[in-house]
Amino acid sequence: MDTPIATKNTNAFYLQAALSFGVALLTMIFSVFYLPVDPWIRAFLGLGIMYLTTSAFTLAKCVRDAQENQAVYTRLDQARVDRILAEHDPFKSVS
Q: How far apart are CA 36 and CA 31, in angstroms?
């Protein structure tokens, strides 16, 4: 049977991801703020940044949920197979 390999992300990976996201978001906010255009264009671009940020979080949550569901199904299937193998007696006579 193929058993899934448990992967664990390190704290450094989480820190790198959080810092990268923060730098990208702040860079976009500052670039829109200092863009030499009319205020309504700035507001439109700001709304675009907010929409893109929230949809990125939603997509990440959906991907995480799908991976967790797949892991649960894999564990349930493995538990069923283990139970069947534990209950099987190869020396039992067939009547």
A: 10
Cβ(29)–Cβ(49) below 8 Å: yes
Cα(4)–Cα(75) distance, integer angstroms = 9
Q: What is the pTM of this model?
A: 0.59
Integer Cα distance of 85 and 77 in angstroms = 12
Contact 32, 49 (CB under 8 A): yes
Q: What is the pLDDT of residue 43?
A: 94
Residue 11 CA to residue 18 CA, distance in Å, equals 11
CB-based burial, 42-77: b 16+ in 10 Å, e otherwise: eeebeeeeeeeeeeeeeeeeeeeeeeeeeeeeeeee
CA distance 49 to 53: 6
Q: Rounded to the nearest 10 degrees, what angle do helices 39-87 and 11-33 cross at?
A: 160
